[in-house]
Design goal:
alpha+beta; 3 domains
Length: about 400
């Protein structure tokens, strides 16, 4: 089996399917391959802020997501006896976020890619690239196993949208740069039977933070973030449940709830950049740039990068244009993610919470950093004054 396309996208989740939709709508012949079979879960922060919702609406996916009834979420934070809540500055009329499991979201995007005209091959295992990715031997396709058969797909360009452990990056020998070591680890599980609330909730108990996100189809995501040493020497599920039940509000809410069997934990959450493009190849989404999930940017990053990259690929300008776009769109938030990833300290948290509870406009600016309608530098300047 050998087929020819304009673009091959390796990875069919948020970045890959979004890119395929945009390219196919413009008339390109696009193939998308993924080793998974959808619906399929993957490690994720799950939350979609108003900027991501607008991007999903442009892809034609939002109505189907809403059919799964994820509640619209404003944000609340709690520390000791101080709490506050805020809505986002609206984008396309939406001042709320959604939490959607990747089991649901990615399957919808794959369906939208097929509907746009892309060819999607699930359970395709990429084994090598056609071409070395050099000026004299540009990448011009992929080879791998599909339905137990060796397959070659050829194209003018190959895009790696296959996550932080990108096979495309590994085959090209493109390493991680500017690595930001993660000071914290994360774990979460899916729950059912929790009373519905239209809030995403953060409970800060330094050096830990517990989080509750009502999600799609009656599920809830309950997560904890804390220092690496907190996970040493104990089963991850035991540590996770101990931290969740240490929050009285959550403990009461979970008394009659049912947890899924699996606690999903991630300790290797180092941020990084990779060289984004070369002869015949491009890396997009987490394959090219990864932020610690405390900044809750992964899905929005993927959608924004796919939307920006598509016209560059169509015009053949990606090698000079995509890197500068990515730097401009992400540098401040990359630095912000390093701050967000730190284990909270009691005195700093108390001062921050008092300032945000005292000034509702500042609280809105805080949540708007996550939806990218406020720059982190502007927020941090205001917080420094308010917390003084």
């Amino acid at each position: 089996m050998s087929e020819a396309y304009d673009t091959i996208v390796v990875g069919a989740r948020a970045a890959g399917s979004a890119l395929a939709i945009n390219l196919a709508r413009s008339g390109q012949r696009v193939a998308v391959v993924d080793r998974a079979s959808f619906p399929s879960d993957t490690l994720s922060t799950h939350v979609l802020y108003p900027n991501a919702l607008a991007a999903l609406d442009r892809l034609g996916a939002l109505d189907e997501i809403l059919w799964h009834e994820p509640p619209p979420l404003h944000t609340s934070w709690h520390h000791e006896n101080v709490s506050w809540r805020a809505a986002h500055t609206p984008i396309a009329g939406r001042d709320w976020a959604l939490c959607v499991r990747r089991f649901t979201l990615d399957a919808i995007l794959v369906r939208r890619a097929r509907a746009a005209g892309a060819t999607v091959h699930e359970r395709f295992f990429v084994e090598r690239l056609l071409g070395a990715g050099t000026d004299t031997d540009p990448v011009h396709g992929i080879a791998g196993r599909f339905d137990g058969v060796q397959v070659e797909l050829r194209a003018r360009q190959v895009v790696g949208a296959d996550g932080a452990r990108s096979t495309v990056a590994r085959l090209l020998g493109v390493g991680r740069e500017e690595v930001a070591a993660s000071p914290t680890a994360m774990a979460y599980a899916y729950w059912r039977g929790i009373p519905r609330r239209e809030l995403q909730e953060f409970y800060v108990q330094p050096p830990w933070t517990a989080m509750h996100f009502p999600a799609d189809d009656g599920y809830h995501v309950v997560a904890v973030l804390g220092p690496h040493e907190g996970w040493d020497g104990r089963p991850r599920a035991q540590t996770y449940l101990a931290r969740v039940h240490a929050v009285p509000q959550l403990r009461r809410r979970l008394e009659r709830a049912r947890m899924s069997k699996k606690v999903i934990a991630a300790t290797a959450l180092d941020g990084f950049w990779r060289r984004p493009t070369g002869p015949g190849w491009t890396l997009v989404g987490d394959a090219g740039h990864f932020k610690h999930p405390a900044a809750v940017q992964g899905i929005a990053d993927a959608l924004a990068a796919a939307e920006a990259l598509a016209p560059m690929l169509l015009a053949g300008t990606q090698r000079r244009a995509f890197g500068p776009w990515r730097e401009s769109a992400n540098r401040e938030l990359y630095d912000f993610s390093r701050r967000a990833a730190r284990a909270p300290e009691r005195d700093e948290t108390a001062a921050l919470m008092r300032a945000l509870a005292r000034e509702p406009a500042l609280a809105r600016d805080f949540v708007d950093v996550y939806s990218r309608t406020r720059r982190p530098s502007e927020l941090l300047d205001r917080l420094a004054v308010a917390a003084a």
